[in-house]
Amino acid sequence: MLTMSLRIPTILLVLIVFTFAGAARSFAQSQSDENTPRTGAINGRVLNDTGQPVPNALVFATGQGAATQRTAMADEAGNFVISGLDASLYFIGASAPAHATMVREPGEIPSPYRIGDSVTLNLVRGGVITGTVTTATGEPLVQAVVRATLIRDANGKISTTMRFPLERTTDDRGVYRIYGLTAGTYVVSAGGRIASFSAGPYDADAPTYAPSSTRDTAAEVDVKAGQETSGIDIRYRSEPGRSISGTVTGQPAPNALTSVTLSQVVNGVSQLVSFSYQSPNGKGFVFYGLPDGEYDVTAQAFAAQSGIQATEPLHVSIKGRDVTGLNLVLTASPSLAGRVVLIASTAVECQNKRKPLFAETLVLARRSDKSAQKNVLTFPNLSTNQTSPDKNGDFAFRSLAPGQYALGTRFFARYWYLRSIERESPAPTTTGRPAVVGSGNDLARSGFQAKFGDRITKVTMTLAEGAASLRGALKSEPNSAPPTLSVHLVPAEKENAEDLLRFFVSPVQADGTFSLTNIPPGNYWVLPRTGESMTDEKLRSPDEAEARLKIRREAEGAKVQLELKPCQNLVDYSLVFKNSTSKNP
What we know:
Blueprint: H1 10-17, E1 25-26, E2 39-47, E3 58-63, E4 69-73, E5 79-86, E6 90-95, E7 99-101, E8 118-125, E9 127-134, E10 145-153, E11 166-169, E12 175-181, E13 184-190, E14 208-209, E15 221-223, E16 228-229, E17 234-235, E18 242-249, E19 258-266, E20 269-278, E21 285-290, E22 293-303, E23 307-310, E24 314-318, E25 323-329, E26 331-332, E27 335-344, E28 362-367, H2 369-374, E29 384-387, E30 394-397, E31 403-410, E32 416-423, H3 443-446, E33 448-450, E34 455-465, E35 468-476, E36 486-491, E37 504-507, E38 513-519, E39 522-529, H4 536-539, H5 545-558, E40 561-564, E41 569-577
Parallel strand pairs: 2-8, 9-16, 9-17, 18-25, 27-34, 35-41
Antiparallel strand pairs: 1-27, 2-5, 3-4, 3-6, 7-8, 9-12, 10-11, 10-13, 13-14, 13-15, 18-21, 19-20, 19-22, 22-23, 22-24, 23-26, 27-30, 28-29, 28-31, 31-33, 32-34, 35-38, 36-37, 36-39, 39-40
């Protein structure tokens, strides 16, 4: 859950919420299954980090599609039921005063749920920062807005998603107390403004960071879940701020409200500073209360039918004077359209198996880590975009951020697997040369590059019947068990050596068990190893080519081979871990 000010504009909230044998026969995409319920409920419980219920927590189910969200309130025992849900995929979250969500890895996608599922949601008691704000003479600064801005998460990683500071106002003693903070490292400031329409007594001042500093020398405050960090006092500098102003041009959709985002670049990293609006017939935008420094300015116009238009970041330097006359030109954001195709098997073992439902299928477009960091505030949405196909299997991403992407999918049908992701060769451009998508039209291998104005079409994602599954246990030799283990499957056939969709990974649980599903039939190397935990989507990313090569070499050296047949469920598979076969990527 993003930590944010209560004064966030609606357009940015929208962006945040939505800112991987024998002859076959192909059958029609429009699906019907009389045994599949059309409506239902998702129930569960909200617990804190000690396993105790969180009473009266607000629980929300966010589905694919426009404005698909329902909420419910947990009872005194933390139990909740969200009813009246259509058959679809939902992301379930919860919030409660003074609580925060568990920290996830950057870019990690929460698990989607279906009607009939039972969910356990975990919240942690948020951290607290408190202190006083005083003038240069030691008098309390009353009604000053104090903000805590997260700069690194609890794992020390810089966030690649836009986060709004959490803010509170000082009382008549100059005391502030900011609670409900996610664990991590923060900087704390007083004065300045986030929203251009705010009206506080110190909005036009440049912000003062604890203890009495500019941003580049600000103290960093470590916050832990459920703990209070006190004495973070600020001696207010009362320095006048500068302004940045300009206009947004282009052709936004009729009546589209244009938002303008300002981020300050500190040590090469963008940090949200403020946002503003330009109304449909407005004459421009302005930001106040800014200190000297380096900034990036971007603009977006959002319309439900046409998606997002945006601008490349415009770099601006403030050095002792206001910056005026900026012109930001809106351009259509990158888009991608394609279709999910289902290919059934005629193998006897695969007959009468449940097929995937498009309403319960998720198509993922995951930006590479490098692209996400570079464009973190160009599009203030998640690093991974997701959508679901319609009843005919068609899907579309209408508003992608610029960058390098990998496509993937998640679906609920254990005897099916993702066979390929391909794009039909583009038609020649007006210059006579074909448009370039990546290193080829095998998007599973090369991914695709998205730039402003790009319209990528005719992408086919093929799901095939015949998937196998593997469950087993990892046994360690005496004194050899490391703290983190995973089991990898690597294609053993030479013709499939570079097929990224045949690379799989499963974490080993505390009891030594592991599970892998939706595996294409074939021959695999099986490798237990230590190292950073990964998901299938991350392992298949173009960013992880070096890691995959190391894993392949280790697997070939370990020489543990396994053949999986169509629709085979292999259980009680036993694997032995030896330290000599494991190396970190």
